[in-house]
Specification:
alpha/beta, two-stranded antiparallel ribbon, 6 helices, about 20% strand
């Protein structure tokens, strides 16, 4: 397996950057090995887009990202998505592991925008930008698939 870099959501890396000031570290042994080897490039599109921690919960609805308080956060999410893409290119990452369900980083599922804890098929804005640029994006629940993709 080559020593290629992997773009990862900051909360999976262990940063306290979630909207609620929490983290959701990925504890898969292979993920921790990549972290130890210095192969992970962490990014929090929301913080890098200018949003504070903690911040109001946001959900994606169509092309917009709205906060639970009714504010439009699309501009910050777009800025963060562009920063995630810039980091991926700058670090020549092989692929990305992003936090499932997030309005930025969800790769297969996101919340539906109603703030009723309803999860739907979809992708976060940063993931959309990364995929449109040709990057393969996986969730933290797909480490085995990541291992196979890196072996190719």
């Amino acid at each position: 397996m080559s020593e290629k870099k992997i773009l990862v959501s900051g909360c999976l890396f262990g940063w306290h950057c979630r909207y609620d000031d929490g983290d959701t570290p990925c504890l898969h042994p292979q993920f921790l090995k990549w972290k130890e080897e210095g192969r992970l490039i962490p990014v929090c599109p929301e913080v890098f887009g200018g949003l504070p921690t903690p911040r109001p919960d946001c959900q994606r609805t169509g092309d917009k990202v709205m906060s639970c308080a009714g504010g439009d956060c699309t501009e910050q999410y777009t800025k963060g998505a562009n920063e995630a893409l810039r980091l991926a290119k700058e670090n020549d990452v092989a692929l990305c592991i992003m936090k499932e369900d997030s309005p930025s980083c969800g790769s297969t599922h996101i919340y539906d925008g109603t703030f009723t804890d309803t999860i739907i098929e979809g992708q976060g804005l940063a993931v959309e930008y990364l995929r449109n640029a040709g990057y393969k994006v996986f969730s933290e629940n797909m480490i085995e698939e990541v291992i196979k993709a890196l072996a190719k």
